[in-house]
Amino acid sequence: MYTTLIGASDLHRLLTQSAQDGVVVLDCGFDLANPQAGRQQHESGHLPGAAYVHLDETLSGAKTGSNGRHPLPERAAFARAMAALGVGPRTQVVAYDNAGGMFAARLWWLLRWIGHEAVAVLDGGQAAWQAQGYPLTSEPAAPRPATELPVRDSLQPTLDYAQLRQALTTGERVVLDARAPDRYRGENETLDAVGGHIPGARNRFFRDNLGPDGRFLAPEQLRQAFTQQMNGRAPADVVNQCGSGVTACHNLLAMEVAGLKGAALYPGSWSEWSAQAGAPSATGPDA
Questions:
Q1: β-strand pairing of 23-27 with 51-52
Q2: CA neighbor of 46 nearest in space, from 107, 143, 134, 117
Q3: Is the model's pTM score more than 0.90?
Q4: For the segment 186-237, what is each residue's pLDDT rounded down to a tens digit?
Q5: Alpha helices in the chain (DSSP H)
Q6: pLDDT 10s digits, 237-257
Q7: Which of 52, 159, 166, 279 is 20 to 30 A from 27 (CA-CA)?
């Protein structure tokens, strides 16, 4: 069972074994600036047998105007969507994308959130698959028989807006912001109405989890980097957030790879926080 990352060669081996029916590969490719680009790229070429899942349609819930740009889906509804793609209680799921894992990590986190442990992100994504000489196809994935995926106890804790505000008041949590440094500082904000960050949050840009080859850094490197940001606190004291709760999952995956288990997600992230009346904000560099 793969529960964090899987290499291209290991995935290829799984897909060529007789037990490949127990593996579901899902393409999570997306472009925040063009929401249909990921589906179009999938139709042009994807890993054999992979089905496409859309960030807005499957990996997010309904927006209310104050719950962020990518609110969480309802747990039972998400489980039904996964079951319709052939994901059952013992299915090994592999998620990948074309963006360093930023969208695949969201699927990884969501499946763990409903209690499904056998899910991993393809390390290096589609580029790593092609670099190994493995083929792409434009053929649609053959439909899999629908199954049932039970909602179990969550493997990933969360905090809502009120809980996070209380935790910051008492100083019991360390907040890590996964956005690019300029957006964290309140500069060049193009996605949310207000620029800045949650007061006291530390900046851990999610792309710093990757090496030049687009794959995740070694566990010991990730552990050292996150331990420095945690300022002596335990992983369970850490809350990860970003702009809308997507790239924060990349940091949570990196922490899991590093053996730093138990950190929480603030799903609404800055897009929800900044929409709340009276919510404090800060600008400028990381303290």
A1: parallel
A2: 134
A3: yes
A4: 999 988 889 999 999 999 999 999 999 999 999 999 999 999 999 899 999 9
A5: 8-16, 37-44, 75-84, 104-113, 125-131, 161-170, 181-185, 219-230, 248-257, 269-273
A6: 999 999 999 999 999 999 999
A7: 159
Question: Which is catalytic among the residues 242, 252, 260, 264?
Answer: 242
Report the C-alpha gap between 255 and 34 in whole angstroms: 29
- The pair of structure tokens assigned to 243 is 């702009």
Contact yes or no for 218/210 (Cβ under 8 A): no
Measured between alpha carbons, how far is 54 from 36 in angstroms, rounded to an integer?
Answer: 9
Residue 5 DSSP code = E
Report the 10 Å Cβ neighbour count for 193: 8
Q: How many CA atoms lie within 13 A of 91 on its CB side?
A: 26
> Residue 261 — left, alpha, or beta (φ > 0 → left; ψ -120 to 50 → alpha)?
beta
CA neighbor of 271 nearest in space, from 77, 96, 32, 37: 32
Q: 242 catalytic, yes or no?
A: yes
- Cβ-based neighbours of 3, under 8 Å, separated by 6 or more: 117, 118, 119, 120, 256
Secondary structure of residue 139 in the 3-state scheme: coil
**Half-sphere exposure of residue 55: CA atoms within 13 angstroms, side-chain side:** 27
Structure tokens at 83: 């079951």
Count of all residues that appear for the chain in the document? 287
Q: What is the pLDDT of residues 159-168, one digit of tens each?
A: 999 999 999 9
List, in order, residues 6 or more apart from 98 with CB less than 8 Å away. 29, 38, 41, 125, 126, 127
Give the chain's mean pLDDT.
Answer: 95
